[in-house]
Amino acid sequence: MPAPPSAARVVIENCAVATVDAHDTEYERGHIVVSGATIESVGPGPAPAGLTDVVRRVDGTGHLATPGLVNTHHHFYQWLTRGLAQDANLFDWLVALYPVWARIDEPMVYAAARGSLAMMVRGGVTTAMDHHYVFPRGAGDLLGAEIRAAREMGVRFSPTRGSMDRGQSAGGLPPDFAVESTEAALRATEEAVDTYHDPSFGSMLRVGVAPCSPFSVSTELLRESAALARRKGVRLHTHGSETVEEERFCKELFGMGPTDYFASTGWLGEDVWMAHCVHMNDTDVETFARTGTGVAHCPSSNARLGAGTARVPAMLRAGVPVGLGVDGTASNESGELHTELRNALLVHRLAGGEKALNVRQALRLGTHGGARVLGRADEIGSLEAGKLADLVLWKLDGLGHSTIADPVAALVLGAPAPVTLSLVGGAPVVEDGRLVTADEDTIAREARAEARRLARIAADAG
Length: 462
Hints:
Layout: E1 9-18, E2 26-35, E3 38-44, E4 54-59, E5 63-67, E6 69-70, H1 90-101, H2 106-121, E7 125-132, H3 142-153, E8 156-163, H4 182-196, E9 208-211, H5 219-232, E10 236-240, H6 244-254, H7 258-264, E11 272-276, H8 282-291, E12 294-297, H9 299-304, H10 312-318, E13 322-324, H11 338-352, H12 359-373, E14 391-395, H13 407-413, E15 419-424, E16 427-431, E17 434-435, H14 440-461
Parallel strand pairs: 1-4, 1-5, 6-7, 7-8, 8-9, 10-11, 11-12, 12-13
Antiparallel strand pairs: 1-2, 2-3, 5-14, 14-15, 15-16, 16-17
Helix pairs in contact: 2-3, 2-14, 4-5, 11-12, 12-13
């Protein structure tokens, strides 16, 4: 895609480059030319001579350039409840925290979104996703608060409007006061799509439809949400096959396992991705591959809750689209996606041996895999001419990586690498390890205050 003559160019040279394209092309010493919001060229050696309108040149010596990381599953609001229910499985953890989460309001969600986004962006995330499904009555515009935070941060954002309509009185896990009616949830979801969704190339905001989980959502809400999403042309997201308790719940309530239940409600297809997918048999994996249903793999959260190890190597062999997810920071307190590259590799080698996953597969999960899961692989997830200039320059010449010759191995296996530069659509969001668009100290202070306010409100409510 040739650059318009007037497009300002940024030139990055002298760095190692991992393009994560279809051939895993890499350059030991290469260049990237950014023109406006897109990548003009990527290749070995220095940038082409005679480039005009160059507004910035970056010497990438000692660095690795990769596509920006793509997060495929998160719950921003949980930034305010980190470190609680430390030794609980998923169901016990949810029962302990739902009464607290049901007290959130708009200022809390805004502060939590800023904290969650800041942690990810400063660690190389250029496309963030969130699954927000708790909407207490009178709490304000919670989805709007997240969108405002992402817009201010300058990150590409894929929020999903979640929902719950199965409270404890109907056999679900959340307390009744924490759920919506089916009709209200569908109405609010459609309104969110109509208000915010931008399907254009290079969009900074794509909205999805996301009922929470089989154990917090009625069959009617699942079916009607799928129909709504397809009528609007947006993607669908939910939790699936996360724990053995969920599988038992589905069999007891619906007479079938989670995958069959999702199939019966219209929740399989290339426009669907599910979080976790830990407990899947061969037939489940084959079904996801055949239908193109994607998976958001969250290794740290799965480990934190003792949920088990997802069969990601088998999914990849079968052709299932798989990306990485931070998950909510109440079950992955670090809130970082770049550490998931390493954790994914280690978890799967523990489960399947030393060849279960390699460093380049791990990097692909966090970049191109995530872009595919979000339906944006034609725009982001690899460094190729014509794609959006979402990229990260990782510093690998310091102490933590000084003796690892392979830069991809240094990034995945080594200590968390500092981010020298991160671009979203050609615009810097991180410079020299610090956020460009927000003050980290202010974000931390405001989030801490909102976390304390939430704790007081929850305690007063009993």
